[in-house]
Every structure is written in structure tokens, then in C-alpha cells.
């Protein structure tokens, strides 16, 4: 009962941790100045992030496939807060080029795309994490502080405590990696997918080290660097069993935004 209760509380409070969209709104950051993805990339995106099941798309025949695709596009447009045209227009293809989390948005296509496990909660309230590899972008103490602060945010709103333990020993294993990094979900280089994490009781939290990471450095984060704290809070939410939020201001929204203090 305690566990069910704590997940319920988490779901309720997750929407109170806010992301900062001001960089996006004012177009200050070059990170958001993206070119639209290609038609092929757009279709791949819909499969990767769970908007359409690739098997259905292939077995649906030409007409059926068209409806499925249109449906998937509209679902994505709804998720992304765009007008639901059902076609891969420029605004849709641009949104698909925005930096984001690697986890699927829709649980329907479990075989495609991002990491996802069946169990969605931890069977205990004290969870350990270890930082198993590092980024050259920040001193280790700074990375440590960012991860600590991210989990403190969750501890503050749910009856769960976190403790950092030695490398390799954590229930949750935090890692920086580029491209292929030892799991079935290779990263994609600079931009695009920034990080991903698994659901309980698998504990993987991986940052794409092709990004330039920064911590509480407004100049860097306003430029081409990615806000480690914001991404760590978001991915930390996944490691506790939270899925993506359709509320664009919520920290669990799939698209990247800086953390709003
Ligand atoms: Zn996510
Ligand atoms: Zn990974």
C-alpha cells in the first residue's frame, strides 16, 4: 500500500516541478534553432517514440498504412502542442528536430524505440545510485552535486530517499556515453536525444556525452550547452516509474527545457 501511495503522490507532484521554456520562447538558445527533419526521419521518429507500431505500418497495406501514419502524426502534433493537420508539415518536422528525451511518448509500440520495462515502481523506499562514468565537460564534484540535487527534488515531494554509493553498486547506475554505450539504444550524437533512463526496477540513467553539459551556468545553458540538472530531474523521474507528461511546462514533458528554479 505504501508503494502504491508513493507512486500516486509522485504522479500528482511531478507536475509541480516546472521546466523553463523562456529560452525557447525568446529563441535565445542556438540549441533550438533547428532545421526540419527529412520525411524519412519523421516517419522513423514516429516509430521510435511510440506513435505508430512499425509492424502495423508495414502490414496495414498502402491505404491502411496511410491512415495509421496520419493518425500517428496527429497524435504527435497533439502531444507537441501543434495544430493537428495530420501531415508532416514544416512545424511538425521542426519540432521533431528539437532536443528531447530518448524514452517513448506513447506506450503502444513497446517493441520499438526507447528503453522501457514492465515494472513501474520500486519495492522499497530507500534507493541507491552510483555514477559509473563521467563527462569531460564538468568536474566530478559538480556532476555529483547535480545528480544529488535532482534526486533531492524527488525526495522533497515523495517518501523516497536516495543515497550515492560506490561505482557499479547503485540500484540506479548513472552513466555518460556516446553513440553505442553498452545497451540496445545507441545515442545519436549532438542534439536530438539527450538522455534516457529505464523504469523500475531496472536502474539505468544515461546521458548522451555528445552533448555539452553545464550546471547552473546561465551563459552556457543559454547558448549551446545542455542543462544537466533539468535533464537529471527528468530522467530521475523515469527511474522512479514516471512516464512523459503532455503538460509542456512539466519537468516530465519529453522536449528539453532548462530547469525553472
Ligand atoms: Zn523522458
Ligand atoms: Zn543507454
Automatic annotation (TrEMBL):
Keyword Membrane set for record:
no
Residue span(s) of domain Peptidase metallopeptidase: 118-261
Chain positions recorded as Zn(2+) 2 binding sites: 101, 234, 238, 244, 252
Q: Which UniProt keywords apply?
A: Calcium, Hydrolase, Metal-binding, Metalloprotease, Protease, Signal, Zinc
Question: What cofactor(s) does the depicted protein rely on?
Answer: Ca(2+); Zn(2+)
SUPFAM superfamilies tied to this protein? Metalloproteases ('zincins'), catalytic domain, PGBD-like
The record lists Ca(2+) 3 as bound by 188-189, 208, 211
What is this protein called in UniProt? Peptidase metallopeptidase domain-containing protein
Q: Which organism is it from?
A: Diploscapter pachys
